[in-house]
């Protein structure tokens, strides 16, 4: 497949030290404050990284704050709740995967090949983003707000719908007498 899955959330700066870089604004303790919006991205990156750890249990806001060397209150300046942090990860997943699915639809005229590549891109995304995979399969959402799992279920419903549409188109091209039924069974 020619398109590759995106890396985890884009880095806010060129190195881990950039987590405290704001172009020169420093706090009284000598630590630099990030530019507006950068801290939000850093929080999501740290959360995704923590979810990548094998055997990682539930990620707490205390552990997340400690990893970022900020207070829990600082997390809540950027997100109203932990659920909103997970929503940020889910938004990234949706934008990345559906962006690739749309590109695939534009570039691949053969519906059966498009179906194969759709499944491949989903698997590659999961392989390159193990923390996001835990969110996608619901492992990281077990003790969180139920609406997060519902949103991931909707994500997979959309993926299944795209796959079903591709398979139906392939069945029509192949001359199937019941393309909708065939696509439903194949999906």
Write the layout of secondary structure elements.
Blueprint: H1 38-52, H2 61-68, H3 72-78, H4 82-107, H5 111-128, H6 130-136, H7 146-173, H8 179-186
Helix pairs in contact: 1-2, 1-4, 1-6, 4-5, 4-7, 5-6, 5-7, 7-8
The ordered H/E elements are HHHHHHHH
Query: What is the count of helical runs?
Result: 8
Averaged pLDDT: 82
Rg (CA only): 20 Å
Report the β-strand fraction as a percent range: under 5%
Query: Sheet bearing the most strands, described?
Result: none
Runs in which pLDDT lies below 50 for 5 or more consecutive residues are: 1-8, 10-26
CATH superfamily of the largest domain: Tetracycline Repressor, domain 2
Secondary structure class reads mainly alpha
CATH top-level class of the largest domain: Mainly Alpha
Helix content: 55-70%
Morphology:
elongated
How many E-type strands? 0
Distance between the ends: 20 Å
């Amino acid at each position: 497949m020619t398109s590759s899955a995106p890396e985890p959330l884009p880095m806010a700066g060129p190195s881990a030290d950039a987590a405290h870089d704001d172009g020169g604004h420093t706090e009284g303790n000598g630590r630099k404050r990030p530019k507006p919006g950068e801290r939000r991205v850093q929080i999501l990156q740290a959360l995704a990284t923590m979810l990548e750890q094998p055997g990682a249990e539930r990620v707490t806001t205390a552990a997340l704050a400690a990893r970022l060397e900020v207070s829990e209150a600082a997390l809540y300046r950027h997100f109203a709740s932990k659920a909103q942090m997970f929503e940020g990860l889910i938004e990234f997943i949706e934008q990345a995967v559906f962006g690739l699915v749309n590109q695939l639809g534009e570039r691949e005229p053969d519906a059966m090949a498009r179906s194969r590549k759709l499944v491949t891109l989903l698997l590659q995304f999961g392989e390159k983003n193990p923390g996001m995979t835990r969110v996608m399969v619901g492992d990281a959402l077990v003790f969180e707000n139920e609406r997060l799992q519902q949103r991931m279920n909707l994500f997979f419903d959309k993926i299944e719908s795209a796959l079903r549409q591709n398979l139906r188109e392939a069945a029509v091209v192949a001359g199937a007498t019941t393309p909708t039924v065939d696509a439903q069974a194949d999906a």
